[in-house]
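Final report, Chapter 2: Outcomes

The project's central promise was a pipeline that accepts a single protein chain and returns its three-dimensional structure in a standardized token representation, suitable for archiving and comparison. That pipeline is now operational. To close this chapter, we reproduce one record exactly as it appears in the project archive, with the input sequence first and the structure output second.
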Amino acid sequence: MDAVGTVQIDNERVIVTEWRFAPGAQTGAHVHAYDYVVVPLTAGILRLEEPTGTREVQLQVGVSYTRSAGVAHNVINANDYEFVFIEVELR
């Protein structure tokens, strides 16, 4: 099952996307073209399949984090409930 991304803003400066993951849903392997910020709207665990291996991260509501362009991964909802976050990509 695929995560559902809904673009809220797409302009010359940013792309803002709401990502909704049903239990077990995933993004599919991808590489980020831009630096980005993630703002979790749900607390829980996301599983990250990365070139160096698989790891799980615990996210808290409203505790944002940033990553640089070039990140390669597949993001999977490891919870038994929907997980939601906002992604802000900086052009």
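Archive annotation: The beta strands are 4-10, 14-21, 30-31, 35-40, 44-50, 53-59, 65-67, 72-77, 83-90.
This record, like all others produced under the grant, will remain available to the consortium after the project formally closes.
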